[in-house]
Amino acid sequence: MNSLTWLFTLLFLIMLVLKLDEKAPWNWFLIFIPVWIFDTILLVMLIVKMAGRCKSGFDPRHGSHNIKKKAWYLIAMLLKLAFCLALCAKLEQFTTMNLSYVFIPLWALLAGALIELGYNVFFVRD
C-alpha cells in the first residue's frame, strides 16, 4: 500500500507541474484523477472493513472504539473529497463561490484531526 501511495502522489505532482507550467491544457478535474483513484481505493477498503463488523459472530463489545475511529476516517475522506471537488470547481470557474467557502471542508478536516490528535495524546492510555 505504501508504494501505491507514492505512485499516485508522484502521478498527481507530475500532472500538477505540467498544468502549472501550462504544458498541459487539461481540465483541473483531470489533474486530480490520481488523488480520486487513490481515495476511492481507500474508501472501498474502509467500507469493506466496516461491513465486516456486520457479519454474524462478531462481538460488538470488543472494538467499539475501533468503529468510531473508522467512522471518523470515513468522514475525513468525504471532507477531503468535498474540498477537492470545490477546489476544482473554483479553479475551472464553474462557480463564483468565495475562496474562503472552498476551504471550509479542509478546515473542518484539520479541526477534526487536531481533536483526534489531542484525544490520542491526552486520553488514550494503552
TrEMBL record:
Bilayer-spanning residue ranges? 29-51, 71-89, 101-124
Sorted UniProt keywords: Membrane, Signal, Transmembrane, Transmembrane helix
Q: Does the keyword Transmembrane apply?
A: yes
Top-rank taxon of the source lineage equals Eukaryota
The keyword Zinc is assigned to this record: no
Pfam families linked to this entry: Tmemb_185A
Q: What is this protein called?
A: Transmembrane protein 60
Organism expressing this protein natively: Neovison vison (American mink)
**Taxonomic classification, please?**
Eukaryota, Metazoa, Chordata, Craniata, Vertebrata
